[in-house]
């Protein structure tokens, strides 16, 4: 019997919890410990044998963990945590601040290379699977246009924005791809589309008692950057309805390339996701790429890597023979 | 200036012609020669500097060609040609007889390894891009079901079959995915579906003068293996209509995985292609993977490879820095 890949999780928010679920579905992996900044005693882990450990004790686990899944946020956690942990462990993270990826890569690459570790950064679906499809579609169809649509999905930033409006007690915002725009892209017309032409925004708002709903609706719809440029819909609902119908974190989207070959033949390449749970899916991608980090590290391929550097076979638990025979 | 990747093409049918078109769209590549079993003088190549050469003289071009695109058929050409050419060149082919891939891989791997060549086999969209998506979707979502639908596409084998029916002068057959089945899969229901439940078949037939159309329709619809198990539609049209409306080779299809994570959250992963020209698209994939064959060979990664062994960055003309900055 081959031994299992031993994983640790840093951070026990939605992503970390999703990682626990994903590891349960992976017979070739085992979870050793969850590392937290909170009191480890406060973590409720219902998996036998898995320890909750304070994050400051992680260095004691270098011999017991093959790959560390970094499940913190991109704003403040990962810029610090990935370089820190990549000096001790192979890592996988979901750093998704697109504009800062080059400097993040540099910082992680330096540490990981120096300490002979493999650190796969910016894993998930965007960045991640969507990134792979943008690159592959363009490599295969050099003449054409690539479009990314997001949604239907709960947007954390926009939900925060509507909740700051006066008179709003609670609320959520969904980003929804504009069906007309998608159909135009799928037709091969390669239209010019702004982000606001590609998406509409739908809000579900619980107003405070006696609040001026018309004023709330107006303030949301005219909010610069967030809503003013978009086709925005505002719905008022009760606190009960919000809890009942809007407590999940669905997301998804589309990458579509309209390419042309030969005498103007349209070739439409499309990748899409429709996710009931964004954090659980992102965590599932992290766990699959942990397999790749483990294997790359065994091949002495150290340093920072992205999904672009990882061949598909590295994320699959199946053997090369099996893949050729049953999946090709 | 970096020098271009120098390509040769073996076989000048629809796939070889598609490869010429794809190379024209790739500024980092140049076509050196097309090799043919026919009289090279008979080839009409409208590209300056590109030679038409008899296939038996290919060995003279080992110093001039970095990667050879093998554009023959899977039934008889490639089982002979790939092992032959992989002793002299890095190669890419589109071998698509699924059941024979393991033995084909063995034969090619032996030759390519011995001669320090890189041979990427079974490249295209199925096998090829669809294969990648079947493996990645399952690796990410271990719990679930994967479905492959083909079409709308012209099926060569089924078109040949209808043309053999008595009274049929000419005809074509399209395989069309059953919309209801796709919708069921997209809903996350993970239904059990046979190939015949996933597809329907539509024929456009030109009957001979005075032929018994009812008999033709009946013979097609009851033909074992090909049509009997399917929802089959037979349309009679004129020779002019056939020439006008059915002379292209469209194809495409869908790979969909309905996965589950955590407490029964549905996660739908979908990849699809809608192609005006099947051979031009397949050739475009071959040309992109020729880039990978060239790079792998430069890294001394010799032997037979499949799309599972190729990281996305290897097929892109862009640098790793560019990909991280602009595409991740």
UniProtKB/TrEMBL annotation, chains A, B:
<feature type="binding site">
    <location>
        <begin position="12"/>
        <end position="15"/>
    </location>
    <ligand>
        <name>NADP(+)</name>
    </ligand>
</feature>
<feature type="binding site">
    <location>
        <begin position="123"/>
        <end position="127"/>
    </location>
    <ligand>
        <name>NADP(+)</name>
    </ligand>
</feature>
<feature type="binding site">
    <location>
        <begin position="36"/>
        <end position="38"/>
    </location>
    <ligand>
        <name>NADP(+)</name>
    </ligand>
</feature>
<keyword id="KW-0028">Amino-acid biosynthesis</keyword>
<feature type="binding site">
    <location>
        <position position="278"/>
    </location>
    <ligand>
        <name>substrate</name>
    </ligand>
</feature>
<feature type="binding site">
    <location>
        <position position="175"/>
    </location>
    <ligand>
        <name>substrate</name>
    </ligand>
</feature>
<dbReference type="Pfam" id="PF16654">
    <property type="entry name" value="DAPDH_C"/>
</dbReference>
<keyword id="KW-0457">Lysine biosynthesis</keyword>
<dbReference type="InterPro" id="IPR032094">
    <property type="entry name" value="Meso-DAP_DH_C"/>
</dbReference>
<feature type="binding site">
    <location>
        <position position="251"/>
    </location>
    <ligand>
        <name>substrate</name>
    </ligand>
</feature>
<keyword id="KW-0521">NADP</keyword>
<feature type="binding site">
    <location>
        <position position="201"/>
    </location>
    <ligand>
        <name>substrate</name>
    </ligand>
</feature>
<keyword id="KW-0560">Oxidoreductase</keyword>
<feature type="binding site">
    <location>
        <begin position="94"/>
        <end position="96"/>
    </location>
    <ligand>
        <name>NADP(+)</name>
    </ligand>
</feature>
<dbReference type="GO" id="GO:0019877">
    <property type="term" value="P:diaminopimelate biosynthetic process"/>
</dbReference>
<comment type="similarity">
    <text>Belongs to the diaminopimelate dehydrogenase family.</text>
</comment>
<feature type="domain" description="Meso-diaminopimelate D-dehydrogenase C-terminal">
    <location>
        <begin position="124"/>
        <end position="277"/>
    </location>
</feature>
<keyword id="KW-0220">Diaminopimelate biosynthesis</keyword>
<dbReference type="InterPro" id="IPR010190">
    <property type="entry name" value="Diaminopimelate_DH_Ddh"/>
</dbReference>
<comment type="subunit">
    <text>Homodimer.</text>
</comment>
<feature type="binding site">
    <location>
        <position position="150"/>
    </location>
    <ligand>
        <name>substrate</name>
    </ligand>
</feature>
<feature type="binding site">
    <location>
        <begin position="71"/>
        <end position="74"/>
    </location>
    <ligand>
        <name>NADP(+)</name>
    </ligand>
</feature>
<dbReference type="GO" id="GO:0000166">
    <property type="term" value="F:nucleotide binding"/>
</dbReference>
<dbReference type="InterPro" id="IPR036291">
    <property type="entry name" value="NAD(P)-bd_dom_sf"/>
</dbReference>
<protein>
    <recommendedName>
        <fullName>Meso-diaminopimelate D-dehydrogenase</fullName>
        <ecNumber>1.4.1.16</ecNumber>
    </recommendedName>
</protein>
<dbReference type="GO" id="GO:0047850">
    <property type="term" value="F:diaminopimelate dehydrogenase activity"/>
</dbReference>
<dbReference type="GO" id="GO:0009089">
    <property type="term" value="P:lysine biosynthetic process via diaminopimelate"/>
</dbReference>
<keyword id="KW-0547">Nucleotide-binding</keyword>
<comment type="pathway">
    <text>Amino-acid biosynthesis; L-lysine biosynthesis via DAP pathway; DL-2,6-diaminopimelate from (S)-tetrahydrodipicolinate: step 1/1.</text>
</comment>
């Amino acid at each position: 019997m081959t031994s299992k890949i031993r994983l640790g999780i840093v951070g026990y928010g939605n992503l970390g919890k999703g990682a626990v679920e994903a590891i349960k579905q992976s017979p070739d992996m085992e979870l050793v410990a969850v590392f937290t900044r909170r009191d480890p005693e406060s973590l409720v882990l219902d998996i036998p044998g898995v320890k909750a450990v304070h994050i400051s004790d992680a260095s004691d686990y270098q011999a017991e963990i093959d790959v560390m899944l970094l499940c913190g946020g991109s704003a403040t956690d990962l810029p610090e945590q990935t370089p820190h942990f990549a000096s001790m462990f192979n890592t996988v993270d979901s750093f998704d601040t697109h504009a800062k990826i080059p400097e993040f890569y540099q910082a992680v690459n330096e540490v990981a290379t120096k300490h002979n570790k493999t650190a796969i950064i910016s894993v998930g679906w965007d960045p991640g699977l969507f990134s792979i499809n943008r690159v592959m579609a363009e490599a295969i169809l050099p003449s054409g246009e690539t479009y990314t649509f997001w949604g239907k999905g709960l947007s954390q930033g926009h939900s925060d924005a509507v909740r700051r409006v006066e008179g709003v007690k609670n609320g959520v915002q969904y980003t929804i791809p504009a069906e007309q725009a998608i159909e135009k892209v799928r037709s091969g017309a390669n239209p010019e589309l702004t982000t606001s032409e590609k998406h509409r925004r739908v809000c579900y708002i619980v107003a405070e008692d006696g609040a001026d709903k018309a004023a709330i609706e107006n303030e949301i719809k005219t909010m610069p950057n967030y809503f003013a440029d978009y086709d925005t819909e505002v719905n008022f609902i009760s606190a009960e309805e919000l809890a009942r119908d809007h407590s999940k974190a669905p997301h998804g989207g589309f990458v579509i390339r309209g390419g042309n070959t030969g005498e103007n033949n349209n070739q439409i390449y499309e990748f899409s996701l429709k996710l009931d749970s964004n954090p659980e899916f992102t965590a599932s991608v992290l766990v699959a790429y942990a397999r790749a980090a483990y294997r790359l590290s065994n091949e002495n391929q150290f340093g920072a890597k992205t999904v672009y550097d990882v061949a598909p076979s590295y994320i699959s638990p199946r053997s090369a023979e099996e893949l050729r025979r049953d999946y090709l």
